[in-house]
Amino acid sequence: MEHVELQLPSVLASIAAAEEFVCRLADELGLDEDGRDRLGLAVHEAVANAVIHGNRFSPDRQVRLAARHDGARLTVTVGDEGPGFTPAAQPSGALNLTPSGRGLTLIEHCVDGFHVTRRTGPPPGCDVVLVKHLRKETTVPALSVSERQEGDVTLLDLKGRITIGEGDVILREAVAHTLDAGRRRILLDLADVTYVDSSGIGELVSCCTTTAGKGGRLKLLNVSGKLQDLLTITKLLALCEVHDSEQEALASFD
Fold first, then answer.
1. b/e code 198-232 from CB counts within 10 Å (16+ = b)
2. Cα 204–210–212 angle (5° rounding)?
3. pTM score
4. Cβ atoms within 10 Å of 133's Cβ, excluding its own
5. pLDDT band for position 101 (cuts 50, 70, 90)
6. What percentage of the chain has pLDDT greater than the value 70?
7. Are strands 125-133 and 73-79 parallel, antiparallel or unpaired?
8. 183-237 pLDDT, tens per residue?
């Protein structure tokens, strides 16, 4: 049984650092592409919970990341040192329109085993334990946005990751810039989006509702199977109008 452990500060940068570390380890152990992607997302969400809701960004509290493998499975434990995180999953069938609260739902979907335990100390806190059977995968780029115009419809072509503190902010700013310019018909092309976490899903929903609140319409194009799964799991697919072809999507604005 191989074992490795890290202590991470309670800052947003620790989320990406933990994800990168676990994905690199999974790659070395032969996790396949889909498995590595899903494990990375699960660790991303677990560390985000620990930093934001467990330790509440306290500089006096750390996030413990422990990984062990036995050749057949990889077990990752993410522990916080605070009272802030309450391990309660979203009720089945509930529609969550808030920017957060979907992390545990995504974690449960992405791994082969998952449970949360509360420690009484010292130090007190929560341990989120993730289990994944071993396989292999590749890395993914950061988010970039390019803009093009088709009549009165603005197409934003997204490429890369829509994640907390990075891709979600880039997406939010791109849509806000379009709305500020007086353009109210927006089509997001997600063909080259490779990774979306719960904050990314929340931002997609927020962009739809913000655009509608300003009298506009925002629609999604070329949603991948993985993202469709996540939107379905979180009960948000019905909220965002989705199209498979650009011609069909453009015509739907008429």
1. bbbbbbbbbbbebbeeeebebbbbbbeebbeebbe
2. 105
3. 0.58
4. 14
5. low
6. 89
7. antiparallel
8. 999 999 999 998 888 888 889 989 999 999 999 999 999 988 878 888 778 777 7
Three-state secondary structure string covering the chain: CEEEEEEEECCCHHHHHHHHHHHHHHHHHCCCHHHHHHHHHHHHHHHHHHHHHHCCCCCCCEEEEEEEECCCEEEEEEECCCCCCCCCCCCCCCCCCCCCCCHHHHHHHHCCEEEEEEECCCCCEEEEEEEEECCCCCCCCCCEEEEEEECCEEEEEEEEEECCCCHHHHHHHHHHHHHHCCCCEEEEEEEEEEEECHHHHHHHHHHHHHHHHCCCEEEEECCCHHHHHHHHHCCCHHHCCEECCHHHHHHCCC
Q: Classify residue 171 as exposed, middle or buried by CB count within 10 Å of its CB (0-12, 13-18, 19+).
A: buried
Encode pLDDT of 142-156 as tens digits: 788 999 999 999 999
What phi, psi does 168 have (nearest 5°)?
-65, -35
Q: Tokens 């904050």 label which residue?
A: 199
* Higher per-residue pLDDT: 102 or 242: 242
Residue 144: count of CB within 10 angstroms of its CB: 14
- In angstroms, rounded to a whole number, what is the distance separating the alpha carbons of residues 46 and 65? 10
